[in-house]
């Protein structure tokens, strides 16, 4: 074994709000020899996702949380550098749900081999196909029941999931309005990702702006943020509209109870269907979803901006970017 | 024409919270002669429903609101006493959505003839078949997708809709827990309407009590109340559970914005589907719904307590009973 030591971040102390300097500690541990069925994985990119913060909370969440003392969990992309598992041969790329580590020994349970797509760099392929693309696809179709020619509103529109949601909704012939946190982000999603219009929630009254942009109401709201932003969309939903709750990032850093939307009564007034979802539940349809996403990537219909931070050491601070609007597109750590 | 004058309540001033003495004014107006296609309807019972208060708000609601100066809208049951409409012959009973009036002239647009069921008094028939029964049936089946052997939690369980929801869920073989506002109501829904257990929200910690009564979680929450009560149920929903938002009565009297549920995040954590509905949208399936409800009534599987207030004059004050928990079962005004 050429690599002797693996570095990984461990959960040290529950943060009250943002990630703090003592939330994680970096540990160096010796790498044991491979057993039959295992392989050694060298991490190339670590994906940072809004839901990472949820795993650190003391809420009753959708899966086992990360406990104090555990290595921090994350989606990783990398290369197999030693292997005693014939399904994961040396040299192939793979992606999986594992830990914030530069080297991983695993039997491959939560890993899949990863395609190399012509003309696309590995970061962008991973950014689209690992979490954000499937989340956008399943959220729009399986959960939201997207139909042609609908009016779709997306919050967190310049984020990883948001940029893909907009592009898929355009592929489906919809009118798409994005909500984002700066003029630069708004310009980007309109000029580069095909959004029909964008609202800067930091400088505009979102409720008023949505009223003007969606005079006939919203068919489908794809919600990544929650709070005031969700209230603005709820105000303008069409009768029998659908609201897909993908994320509620505005509340993930709060140690106080956060009220739900003040326009909750519109579930009745507009007869809405509001559904939350988690992409990990939809493994059964993932082959078809990935096939369609890859075809769109191949013919240039789907692209993804990446925001890449350097070095495993930078991961904890970088996670905070998701909650301050500091990233545009998919946030990755290059190991 | 034997009756010369009709009395009816008109909306006079928007209430801030509860209905006040000047919210409505009683007017006496001469009854014009019948035209071809019209009939004269003598109101016997006026139904008071939680949603009546919504019609008086300045919210953007699910139908045309009642405007200041308009006669107050309501569901009515009565008898045809003169007719120039062959579909509504003299002597027959009918029910419809019209006004808080003792006599009504109409072409029958929003009226249907009403069955007389053997062994059941007219008040109970009207109470079950006019609004509460269809609301409970459609909410459980069409909106909530009720399945056998599920755990169902019902708030406002001793109200008109709640008593029917519990009985239908029992007919479907479910376990049903009700939340109500007094020990008497709790005893009634368990002893008379088949609820498996009841929680008095005024004396018990509802979240804690639901945790004990539903250790494996709630499949379907039928919500009539909102606020803290809904939060308690959201806390204990099963993964992929469904929440039917039938009413949010705890917020209808508020002139201040009311926050949505604090456990809104559980839409994601438990991957919930939350749907609001209004019974008026479901006219297409009403014949089948009414047929099934009537068959249950006929074979004694479905009954309804009625709380009857005397005289059209009493209607405005009686409406407040719905928001103070002053009624048990269906609140009717006998004209």
From TrEMBL, chains A, B:
SUPFAM superfamilies given in the database record = GroES-like, NAD(P)-binding Rossmann-fold domains
Q: Does the keyword Oxidoreductase apply?
A: yes
What InterPro entries does this protein map onto? ADH-like_C, ADH_N_2, ER, GroES-like_sf, MDR_fam, NAD(P)-bd_dom_sf
First and last residue of the signal peptide: none
Per UniProt, residues of the Enoyl reductase (ER) domain are 20-333
Main EC class the enzyme belongs to: oxidoreductase
* Keywords annotated in UniProt: Oxidoreductase
Coiled-coil spans are none
Q: Has UniProt tagged this entry with the keyword Oxidoreductase?
A: yes
Q: Which Pfam families match?
A: ADH_N_2 (PF16884), ADH_zinc_N (PF00107)
Q: Kindly give the Gene3D superfamilies that the UniProt entry links to this protein.
A: Medium-chain alcohol dehydrogenases, catalytic domain, NAD(P)-binding Rossmann-like Domain
| This enzyme's EC code(s) | 1.-.-.-
* GO MF term set: oxidoreductase activity
PANTHER family, per this entry? ALCOHOL DEHYDROGENASE, ZINC-CONTAINING (AFU_ORTHOLOGUE AFUA_7G04530) (PTHR43205:SF42), PROSTAGLANDIN REDUCTASE (PTHR43205)
Write the protein's name.
NADP-dependent oxidoreductase
Species of origin reads: Kordiimonas pumila
